[in-house]
Write a structure and sequence with these properties.
The chain is of the alpha/beta class and 499 residues long. Helices cover 25% and strands 27% of the residues. It has two domains: 122 residues, Sandwich (Immunoglobulin-like); 362 residues, Glycosidases (TIM Barrel). The protein is globular.
């Protein structure tokens, strides 16, 4: 049995968890919108055509914010097409995903859906084929009360109260040559600065996210971030990160080590943000919005065979297995360990498209990755403790990778402590210890585990509970020391409360 220890101090904290770190993402892509959250005529739909079974699962995940409407889609999006009487809305060719967008679901419907799902909207503006003035007009439509052209247009459309959207993305992946309106770092930085300036003149209370690199291996990474921030530092509050992980080589140890790669990616971008702040002698710290992250590779081959110019195809529909859930757990731990700078994160995406929730005409079900996200979102809120993990390591493509990923989150108001932990060893259980004498009277109230003999096991509509968590893990506190046994290749949530 492997042995590891965790060292914490009640006064050594990272930061409070910003709830928006448990955000997600809905793009007009595949069946995320149509058949995912909106399906008029479905027995599961309400009077607005919104799927109630999906809403119930989103509320179960306790998602505080959802990014919309893209993604690559936003770089060709004319938001005016998506509002007003549905019979007057035009169908458009979407060059991002080679489909037809009917615009039967749009901005106002999404705002209604968000309220029903107990979440807020993170709105993206089109800085690809459009620019600053359009961004200002969209903000006016959403947030201005009345008495102007676009606010009165919203009221004419049946929405007297402003949507009051407070978080805005200035475009999407503008460094990518696949992006409509692709720009150089300088071009994008100037556009983002001017869009941000106009938007904050209209509504100074909003927060803005500038586009970082589309992923770590982009050839312009680092230089892109530095140039963009040098142009728009005064206007923006966050810089975005995007990264997806895959196991195309069927090398599970390397795949599970991807959390090391995420950790280094975050640290690198933090360094760049601080460099620009120092260069500008600025007082404002630029924080991070990791607004696209997930496992994505299962559907790649099928997506190459899709017919073009259809509506809502089965696109990017990864069927997630148990090892994917383990990595999602480790990635959540990594985000939390950087809670001082990562204030927003969006699991991409939420329904049907590389998603924890899947739907069909006969119901909705939870994919394997649903569970670690659910546990973190519901139990790991409060203050992240600086968690030192002393663990054996193994060699990976990222260098040394610890067999144990873990973080502790303290909630002083509830007098609770949550330990999230992943044992990445494929063949050995792990005994862990943690000195908790500073938390006098705290006892284990639940130890949730999730494991499976088959790393490739999946949940399907026919067998939705093939992979699911159970209570009853081995853990206890004696003489102020927590000891626990983490099963081989397992996800663990140890919840402690003051007796």
């Amino acid at each position: 049995m492997k042995k590891a220890s965790i060292v914490i101090d009640k006064d050594f904290i990272v930061d409070r968890v910003d709830p928006r770190i448990y955000g997600s993402f809905i793009e007009h892509l595949g069946r995320a919108v149509y058949e995912g959250i909106y399906q008029p005529g479905s027995p599961f739909a309400d009077e607005q055509g919104l799927r109630k079974d999906t809403i119930d699962l989103v509320r179960e995940l306790n998602v505080p914010i959802v990014r919309y409407p893209g993604g690559n889609f936003v770089s060709g999006f004319h938001w005016e097409d998506s509002v007003g009487p549905k019979e007057e809305r035009p169908s458009r060719v979407d060059l991002a995903w080679n489909v037809i967008e009917t615009n039967q679901f749009g901005l106002n419907e999404f705002s209604d859906w968000a309220k029903k799902a107990n979440t807020d909207v993170m709105m993206a503006v089109n800085l690809g084929t459009r620019g600053p003035e359009d961004a200002k007009n969209l903000l006016e439509y959403c947030n201005f009360n009345k008495g102007s052209y676009y606010s009165d247009l919203r009221r004419k459309h049946g929405y007297a109260d402003p949507h009051n959207i407070k978080l805005w993305c200035l475009g999407n992946e503008m460094d990518g040559p696949w992006q409509m309106g692709h720009k150089t770092a300088y071009e994008y930085g100037r556009t983002a600065a001017e869009a941000g300036r106009l938007m904050k003149m209209m509504d100074p209370s909003i927060e803005l996210v500038a586009c970082g690199s589309s992923f770590l291996d982009m050839p312009t990474f680092a230089q892109w971030e530095a140039t963009v921030l040098e142009e728009c530092y005064n206007q923006v509050d966050y810089l975005s990160l995007h990264q997806y992980y895959g196991n195309q080589e069927n090398d599970t140890p390397n795949f599970l080590a991807s959390s090391v790669g995420m950790d280094r990616f975050i640290s690198s971008v933090v360094s760049i943000c601080d460099y620009v702040q120092a260069k500008k002698r600025g007082k404002k710290k630029i924080n991070l919005s990791f607004d696209e992250w997930n496992v994505w590779y299962h559907s790649n081959e099928a997506d190459q065979k899709l017919e073009k110019w259809v509506q809502a195809p089965h696109q990017l529909e990864d069927v997630y297995n148990f090892e994917d859930a383990l990595l999602i757990g480790s990635l959540l731990i990594t985000l939390l360990r950087h809670a001082d700078r990562v204030k927003i994160a969006c699991l991409a995406q939420l329904v049907n498209v590389i998603a924890p929730i899947m739907t069909s005409d006969t119901g909705a079900w939870r994919q394997t990755i649903f569970y670690p996200f659910f546990h973190a979102s519901n139990y790991a809120r409060g203050t992240v403790l600086n968690t030192l993990v002393k663990s054996p390591v193994y060699d990976s493509r990222f260098g040394d990778a610890p067999y144990l990923d873990s973080v502790l989150v303290m909630n002083e108001e509830e007098e609770s402590l949550t330990v999230l932990a992943v044992n990445k060893s494929l063949d050995e259980d792990m005994e862990i210890t943690c000195d908790l004498r500073q938390f006098a009277g705290y006892q284990v109230v639940e130890h949730i585990t999730m494991s499976h003999d088959d790393m490739k096991a999946v949940n399907t509509q026919e067998d939705p509970d093939q992979v699911k968590p159970v209570s009853g893990g081995v853990s206890k506190v004696e003489s102020g020391v927590l000891s626990a046994v983490l099963g081989k290749h397992s996800w663990n949530v140890i919840r402690l409360k003051k007796a």
